[in-house]
Amino acid sequence: MLTCQKHRFSLPEDLHYLNTAYMSPLLRQVEAAGIAGIRRKRNPATIDAAAFFAESDRVRERFAALVNAPDPSRIALIPSASYGLATAAQNLPVPRCARIVVAGEQFPSNVYPWRRLAAERGAVVHTVPAPAGPERGRRWNERLLDAITPGTAIVALGHVHWTDGTRFDLERIGGRAREVGAALVVDGTQSVGALPFDVQALQPDALVCAGYKWLMGPYSLGVAYFGPRFDDGRPLEENWITRRGSEVFSGLVDYVDAYQPGAVRYDVGERSNFILVPMLRAALDQLADWGVAAIQDYGRRLSDDLIAEARTLGYAVEDAAWRSAHLVGLRLPPGRPRERLLAALAARHVVVSVRGEAIRVSAHVYNDEDDMQALLDALHAAAG
Ligand SMILES: Cc1ncc(COP(=O)(O)O)c(C=O)c1O
């Protein structure tokens, strides 16, 4: 069972940072890897041709292992979730009048590419909003399943909703998508690294993750899995290093049209970034060491008592069966002024995100009971 890992981070002692869903703090070893990467360019002779490939491949291997992808060559290095999702949108067939199914109030990086694609192809983005009332999570999932009709070309979702952690049953949703021949594109930015994800079991066509939240990496480097549907696709850029034989620098002007196998063609230009890549690798090593299931379990142990007590204060929280434990939305009781809560949080140095009428609590292994108590104190103060 995991114990608190705060000693591996450099967070201020008096801060209760419960906001990994915004951005994870830096692990000490990830920071050290970044500094070593900066120092390395003092002397470029230390960066040989092999380094352009070996280190990126290590990130592929580690991410593939984290999500049980069948082969590291199916992992692309991307600068952002938007980039990975734009790659997916560019390569999926969408007939006229077809449906692209998304959930209501999804993160914009996983909405705008589909709006553009729909406009270009004469297709329709079909948004499934969260229902009001009891059993919200279960009914939302049912509505999503109902929305995946035979005319659906793409289903684009997260594993959890980014504002409140509502869980989408990707096993059933993916099964339904395959039944009608639709592609399943998953934005794993708010779940992968903290909630187990198994590519071989869930069979998404693409899984796209920004790296700076639950993967605990630096900003501006993420990873994406692309399945066989994308094998002959067109990348957003025409990059030299993604070409077959690019390892031989002396032959780079013997231009070749063929790409490296798998999803490597979708790598961003300068993907070998000698600062960011070692940082993400160090972060993925730490996640593997802790274990994703153990991280989720740690989040549950921290959030269970918080949720029980928040409910007694009138906050609405999704049913346990339909939400994650690492990212939890507490919806304010009707009529409770938000400003009072924000002031109570600030006075106690508690950092969470406010999204609409919910506060988003996203704890990680650097948090402990003191952090949760400080948050509860703020909820009590705002109620009284
Ligand atoms: C669900 C989700 N996807 C993606 C992102 C980040 O997107 P991008 O990497 O395109 O900036 C966020 C950031 O909050 C997010 O919550």
So what's the CATH class of the largest domain? Alpha Beta
Task: Determine the N-to-C terminus distance.
Answer: 37 Å
Instruction: Indicate how many domains the architecture comprises.
Output: 2
Secondary structure class reads alpha/beta
Biggest β-sheet: count, sense, barrel? Answer: 7 strands, mixed
The SSE string, one letter per element, is EHHEHEHEHEHEHEEHHEHEEEH
Unreliable parts? none
The CATH level-2 architecture of the largest domain is identified as 3-Layer(aba) Sandwich
Q: Identify every distinct bound molecule in the structure, by name, code or SMILES.
A: pyridoxal-5'-phosphate
Question: How are the strands ordered across the major sheet?
Answer: 2-8-7-6-5-3-4
CATH topology of the largest domain: Aspartate Aminotransferase, domain 2
How many helices does DSSP assign? 11
Number of strands: 12
CATH superfamily of the largest domain: Type I PLP-dependent aspartate aminotransferase-like (Major domain)
Arithmetic mean pLDDT: 97
The Rg value, from CA coordinates, equals: 22 Å
The global form is globular
The helix fraction, in percent, is 25-40%
